[in-house]
Amino acid sequence: QVLLVFAEEDEQSSGFRWACDKAGFRCHLARTPQSALECFLDKHHDIIIIDHRHSRYFDAEALCRSIRTTKASENTVIICVVQRHTDREESSILPLISAGFTRRYIENSSRMACYNELIQLEFGQVQAQFKLRACNSLFTALEKSQEAIEITSEDHVIQYVNPAFETMMGYQIGELIEKELTEVPINEKKADFLDTINSCIKIGKEWQGMYYAKKKNGDSIQQNVKILPVIGQGGKIRHYVSISRLCNDNNKVEKTCECIQAESQTDTQTCRHKDMRKGSLDVRSTTSRGSDGSSQRRRSSMARVHSMTIEAPITKVINIINAAQESSPMPVAEALDRALEILRTTELYSPQLGTKDEDPHTSDLVGGLMTDGLRRLSGNEYILSAKQTHQVAGSLSSPISLNDIPPRITQAMENEEQWDFDIFELEAATHKRPLVYLGLKIFARFGICEFLNCSESTLRSWLQVIEANYHSSNSYHNSTHSADVLHATAYFLSKERVKQTLDPIDEVAALIAATVHDVDHPGRTNSFLCNAGSELAILYNDTAVLESHHAALAFQLTTRDGKCNIFKNMERNEYRTLRQVIIDMVLATEMTKHFEHVNKFVNSINKPLAALEENGNNGDGESIKTVLRSPENRILIKRMLIKCADISNPCRPREQCIEWAGRISEEYFAQTDEERRQGLPVVMPVFDRNTCSIPKSQLSFIDYFIIDMFDAWDAFADLPNLMEHLNNNIKYWKGLDGRNLRVLRPPP
């Protein structure tokens, strides 16, 4: 495809249009820079020809720079048409190259000259760009490969290694590039063996066999290696490709891991929530190394996390091994390190629940939120609007512009960057449509349209479609909850530690995931749907039923109509990556894996960071970056972020906390009513509107799910205002419970 950018029709533009027709190229014509940019973002042309002969119409170099700032132009050939000057010296082409042009075409309106130029471009630069695009796919495959891959030059200088190779050999990203193999530790005892390998590959033969290599830390590992010579220019070997994997008898990918020493048990505990979750947190007093109040609070928070042991069997095992390492000889300590690494990366984090006699509120909450329900005892079936028609872009009224927002709504959103922002004021001002307005403002603040290459009108339509598919009849799981979670997500993304960790694509994914994470929620739990034999439960095999539905429907609604498809201009690989992150974050809101996510976050991120701080390595940016930026840890951070945003109600200002408590209680009451009407198992009997104590239910939820998670998140992101609200809200609910009140507020 060819895009011609000429302000006026003349013989030169006519010549190129004729040449495009003759060559069989699709041709589009733009008269202004704005229309040219819009046309290119829509069609993604292979060749763009810009008229640079008449500066009075538009600045060709500025237009070229604008196009080059877009992701879509990476493999586009851009030609500059310049005037022919016979009466002065040839001018330099460097300014054009700097602006982003690929080459210059001196004006010649001859049709055959234009045709020849296009044919040369097709078989030259354009074909080369096609190969470069293919290379992106190949390198994506290499990056995701579980086999360790190393590419060296003919002189054995390392030119590429994939993440699997860096992990296996204990190196950080980019650390090996441009190093000669002689600079990398090898096994000295195998020098003769290396000569044998070299003698084979230097004559162009492939070598395969067992090989002992040394990691960066000096440890030897046994690999199954295949080395392939690659013939290049001049028929000579230009590269060597090495593909390796650890031998089966090792059956592990060894990594250098932090040895977190278990602290000795002390009798005195200084837990802020002493009477709650006894035994779940072992918070020891620490000596602060700073006089600053904020610093002291943060160190105290880190100390709590360092000693946190959420009562799961696997966590007990990790702590026992940590303690055993202190007095173990080096070989045993290293073996225990490897055991710890395996234990921290497998699915072993579900906690043991107490007996049902201990606390009926906690028991019912756990049963209702963390299980997939009991088997149905009746033949009744609950149909979750599986055949209902979902709202689409065409059926909705025209969305309002961000610039035309009524003053009351603008005023309600004035402090949306603050944690104490009142979502209920915005709900009232927008007549229960807060998501469109808050979404427009937050997405604009984070530059989402620019990242996605979509227009503001497309984003407005998308937000409206998503909001229309939230059920306003739900007391809790409606678009106000979605807007509240979006606000919390944006607030967390603005925290310094989070900004250090996540990339722009992660921020975009987090905001989109927060927006859609409960779309089409029926106001019933997964347990209810499974017990009722709903169509969704059958579709998703009783596993993460609602969360799977939210993620799937969000993409169905987005991609079925171009008017609201915010992803339509994205490059395929980038879209796949974004989609994967969004789905992972939405699925992370499912409560059955709550303790797994929190435990992994504490053990893989909080504790290593706390260890670095306690060892006086606060300024060691590289060590901290290693913890924060590993792909596995970034996934854990994103999951933790959306989990905290999703259930942050107890950390909101008191009046908001009370309002949310009333709304979720009403939704659970309605579910219990329906279970009894239909003869279904009642998964949360304590939520009987006639007998339930809302303060007790809130305290149980905070105790079981909130305290540990927000202690960990606070230690990571530094959130003193949230923790203060949490403490105040705990005192409030305890005060009501102490007076045996079952309601939201004390009597006047």
Structural account:
It comes from Peucedramus taeniatus. Interacts with RAF1. The interaction promotes RAF1 activity. The chain has 748 residues and is α/β, with parallel strands linked by helices. The protein folds into 3 domains: 2-142, Response regulator (Rossmann fold), CATH 3.40.50.2300; 145-246, PAS domain (Beta-Lactamase, 2-Layer Sandwich); 367-372 and 401-738, 3'5'-cyclic nucleotide phosphodiesterase, catalytic domain (Catalytic domain of cyclic nucleotide phosphodiesterase 4b2b). It contains 29 helices and 10 strands. It has helices at residues 11-23, 33-43, 60-68, 94-99, 111-144, 163-169, 191-201, 293-306, 313-325, 330-344, 360-369, 407-412, 423-429, 434-445, 448-452, 456-468, 479-493, 496-501, 504-516, 526-532, 535-539, 545-559, 572-588, 594-614, 621-629, 631-646, 654-678, 694-717, 720-738; strands spanning 2-5, 27-30, 47-51, 77-82, 103-106, 148-153, 158-161, 207-214, 220-231, 237-246. A 5-stranded parallel β-sheet has the order 2-1-3-4-5, with helices on both faces. Strands 7-6-10-9-8 form a 5-stranded antiparallel β-sheet. Helix 1 links the parallel strand 1 and strand 2. Mean pLDDT is 83; it is low at 249-292, 375-381 and 383-387.
